[in-house]
Amino acid sequence: MNVYLETYGCQMNVSDSEVALSILRAAGYERCKEIADADVILINTCSVRDNAELRVLGRLDVFMQEKKKRKQKSKKSKAPDGSEKRGPVIGVLGCMGQRLKEKLLENPAVDFVAGPDTYRNLPDVIKAIIDNGEKISATNLSPEETYADINPMRTDTNGVSTFISITRGCNNMCSYCIVPYTRGRERSRDPQSIVHEAEELFKQGYKEVTLLGQNVDSYQWTNPDDPTDTTCFYQLLELVALVDPNLRVRFQTNHPKDIRKGVLYTMAMYSNICNHIHLPVQSGSNAMLQKMNRKYTREEYLQKIADIREVLPDCAITTDIIAGFCGETEEDHKQTLSLLKEVGFDGAFMFQYSQRPNTLAARKFKDDISAAEKTKRLNEIIELQSSFSLMSNKKDVGETYEVLVEGFSKRSDKQMTGRTQQNKMCVFDVPQTLANGKKETAVNIKPGDYVDVKINSCTSATLIGEIIQKPNRQYITAVVYDNILDIRNSIRELREKFEKEFLENRESKKKENKK
Q1: Residues with Cβ within 8 Å of residue 30, at least 6 apart in sequence
Q2: What is the pTM of this model?
């Protein structure tokens, strides 16, 4: 049987889709690219904003038309036993399925809904629907499910960069966010399975992995057979970096209340851990941060920025901003703009506040900022951030960066694209030479190669450059290697010192709170 799957929302949803496809493939299903060829149509959904859900409802209308079309055909061409051939089985996966549950089953297009923790049951659910014709809701959240033993069916197109899920769920309970209600409590995947997955991906030719979690900084695995055997995020980061120096390692997303200096020092220890941190601030106003239940202040956030720039001067920092949260005053908005100016982010994801049902904010606060005012404030944020993104890229003009090639540019087959360690998109000309009166590629460059690119110009979103030929890198001598080890050991000592201080401060705060 053929299965067709569409994915909407965050990168975690893409990762989940790969898990679901892997489970279905093991049960004998084959993935197809067209709805018309599918026996099963799945849509993996997002509930973070209202627009995401509206888009899914629009797609369900399209799927319903396909179901009707099949029904008309089945009347003319019946199955060998004389019965009418049924249309495709249609299922809604992910956060929207988890949030709406049975309400979605009222849609005539939908045969079943399945939450993020029930994908192991997909083959049985589909079989039951085919056998019995009854609609099914499979939305139990699990405190343990991590899909650690599932080898995801990769759906990326370039075969160069992919994602590894390290946690599921979230414990932060930000007042605006639906994720804890649709993905459940946070749980960490065992480090051995994560490292093994990274090793296998590198063997398959991947050159970059991104460790993925709603809050990677709170990753904490405890061996169920030995409670003293634990792994925190910076230790996991080091284990993955050690897979191979030619494997780039990224991670997202960080949380300002949890990111530790141990992570920064680990990044400094390994050149293949990319110099980019995505640190969502959401607002520059302490009043709004408190309402959002972010558990840090503006001042504490700025200290985290200072820590990053002290340890990693070349690290790119990006963020998320919400415009028009409940009760946001003009002064609150101005404080967000001033924080943007003070930090000078390299990039940002910026959105209007979209109230989500049953969240803390929906229960406690009035969504009292008009749509027009939200749009105005968002546009001011975008305009200001665009100027800083352009300024950041202009600083790179004249510099040379190592770029991981991802493929050819969509606009020209004479240009290729890739990303710097700072996660900046780079477009560069492929060197050409004349042969028999025709231009041909002078060097054999392919996706997955590392090239040195000199930046000649830029836009606010893209660096534009040319490949330069650097002298071949020399082998590291024994003396240089010993020096590297000495530096790495001294950084490790610093990291462990700050980690000890962090844990002691946390325990001290717990004792004070109990008093």
Answers
A1: 1, 2, 3
A2: 0.88
